[in-house]
Amino acid sequence: MFKKIITFIFFLTILIAFSFFVIKNDLLDLGLEQIPKIERSITNGLIDVEKKISNPPPLIGKENAPDSFLTKEGVLSWTNIQRDETESLPALFRNNKLDAIAMERLEDMFERQYFEHISPDGTGASDVAKDIGYEFISIGENIALGNFKDDQTLVQAWMDSPGHRANILNDNYTEIGIAVKKDLYEERETWIGVQIFARPLSDCPQIDQDLKTEIERVQNQIAIFEDSSSSLRREIEDMDPKSRKDIKTYNKKIDEYNGIVKEINNLISTQKNLILKYNNQVDSQNKCIQK
Length: 291
Fold this sequence. Notes:
Radius of gyration: 36 Å
Largest sheet: 6 strands, mixed
Order of helices and strands: HEEHEHHEHHEEHH
Helix content: 40-55%
Strand content: 15-25%
Distance between the termini: 93 Å
C-alpha cells in the first residue's frame, strides 16, 4: 500500500512538472515574436521636391518716353488681360508678401546699382521669399528697366520677350506681386518694374504636422514598452519555480508580460493607422505639387 502511494506521488509530481513546463513554454510563445512587423518610418516626400524658379534675362526698354508713368494696378490689370485674351487663363491674385518681395528686389537694384535677377551677394527672389516666410511650389521673376510710356507698353514689352511671356502665361502661377518705381540708375532717371509670380504651397492639400508628432509619441511609447517586455522576459526565462509560492509569482510575471505584449500590439496598430493617414496626406500634396 505504501509503495502504491509513493508511486502515485512520484507520477503526480512528474505530471505537474511536465504540465507546468508546457504551460511555461506556451505562455512564453505569446511574446514579442508575435508582434506584427510594420514599417514605422514616416515617408515625407516633400523633402525631395525641387522648387521651380524661372528668371528670364532682364529686359531693358528701348524707348524713352518723356511722360513715362507706371502703376502697380495698371501692370496687374494688363497682365491679367494678356492671360485672358491670349490663353484664356484665370486672373492672378495680388499677394502682399509677393508685393513685398518685388519691392525689396527693386529697392536693392536701385540702392546697389545692378540690374539682374541675382544680387551681388547671391540673393534672388526665392531667397527673399524664404526670408519673409512665403512658402512656394514655383516662383518666377520678370524685371524691366526703362522709361516705358505706360503700364500697357511695359506689359507688352514683356509679352514680346519669350521668357517673360512664358512667365505671364504660365498656368501654374496663381499669385503675383508687383513693384514699380522711378529713381536714379547709372546717373539717369529711369523706371524699374518687377513682377513676382508664384504658386504658393497653400494651393495644395496641407499635411497635418500634429500627426507626425503623434506618430513620434506613439513610437516612443512602443520603445519604452519593448524595453520593459525584454527585461521581464529575461527575468521569466531565468526563473525556476519549485514551490507553490514560486509558481504563483511566476504566473503573475507571465500575466504581466503578456499584458505588456498586448499593449505593444495595440500601440503598433494605432501607429500603423497614423502612418497610413500621414503618408496619404504627403502623397496627395506631392501629386498636387507635380502638376
